[in-house]
Design brief:
Number of domains: 2
Distance between the termini: 48 Å
Shape: globular
CATH topology of the largest domain: Rossmann fold
Organism: Oceanobacillus polygoni
Largest sheet: 6 strands, antiparallel
Oligomer: single chain
CATH architecture of the largest domain: 3-Layer(aba) Sandwich
Number of strands: 11
Structural class: alpha/beta
EC number: 1.18.1.2
GO molecular function: ferredoxin-NADP+ reductase activity
Enzyme class: oxidoreductase
Keywords: Oxidoreductase
Helix content: 10-25%
């Protein structure tokens, strides 16, 4: 396993609680849209075993052509040891990245794509939208729906409806409106539905989509294959008997 040590080159305050850390891109480090990586702080591998409290699984919110690896995360006032250390890091400090992989690249199957996210989960979809803007081949259109109760919506300069690009974006701040809209979107029985958020959020979205007749093969989650089958394998018919 290759560990890339790299430096923070910029810190962007996206909202009062959300920051993006832009990292220098190591020479041979590559990724694609929808990628996640293991993001680790100094000292994580100092002992015999890795210190897991200094490692987090993070989405990369930038595309390779930006030449910066973007890590966007929410840091609340009361937070973990990891987030406390991260909050105090500055430009020039070193961090590590390793085990990078994409479970949710943009599928080009001549279908409508729906991006369903909660809060900072939108960071996973940012590069998918940018990739679509650069090359829309074999994607009919994209619709993004994000729920954020803080009302400090993220990336509004990118997640802005652009009819000429066949892209629409919606932000809501409550569950009732959010799930009503998910049901409306699920009227498209041939669409592809990407979902990013907490495990509870994933389960709730899957239930709503399945109840509307969306098949598991149409639902994309940022999970490894084994985890994917656990989330998508429940039998809806047995639950409704």
């Amino acid at each position: 396993m290759q560990i890339y040590w790299t430096k923070i080159n910029k810190i962007i305050e996206e909202s009062p609680e959300v920051k993006t850390y832009l990292l220098d891109c190591p020479e041979d480090f590559t990724w694609e849209e929808g990628s996640h990586t293991h993001f680790a702080l100094e000292g994580f591998n100092a002992g015999e075993k890795p210190n897991r409290s200094l490692i987090r699984h993070m989405s990369i919110s930038t595309l390779p052509q930006s030449n910066s690896i973007g890590i966007t995360t929410r840091i609340r006032e009361q937070c973990s040891e990891f987030k406390t250390i991260l909050r105090n890091l500055e430009v020039g400090n070193e961090v590590a990245i390793f085990k990078t992989h994409s479970n949710v690249p943009l599928k080009r199957e001549d279908k409508n794509v729906y991006l369903l996210s909660s809060g900072v989960g939108l960071a996973t979809f940012r590069p998918l939208v940018l990739e679509y803007f650069e090359r829309a081949d074999n994607v009919n259109q994209i619709h993004s729906l994000n729920i954020d109760s803080s009302k400090d919506f993220l990336f509004t300069n990118i997640f802005e409806s652009a009819p000429d690009k066949k892209f629409t974006s919606q932000f809501v701040d409550n569950r009732k409106d959010y799930y009503e809209e998910v049901k409306n979107l699920a009227a498209d029985k041939d669409g592809l539905f990407y979902v990013v958020g907490s495990d509870e959020f994933l389960v709730q979205n899957i239930e709503v989509l399945r109840e509307q007749g969306i098949k598991p093969t149409q639902i994309m989650l940022d999970k490894h294959k084994q985890q994917l089958s656990e989330f998508l394998s429940f039998d809806l018919s047995s639950e409704t008997k």
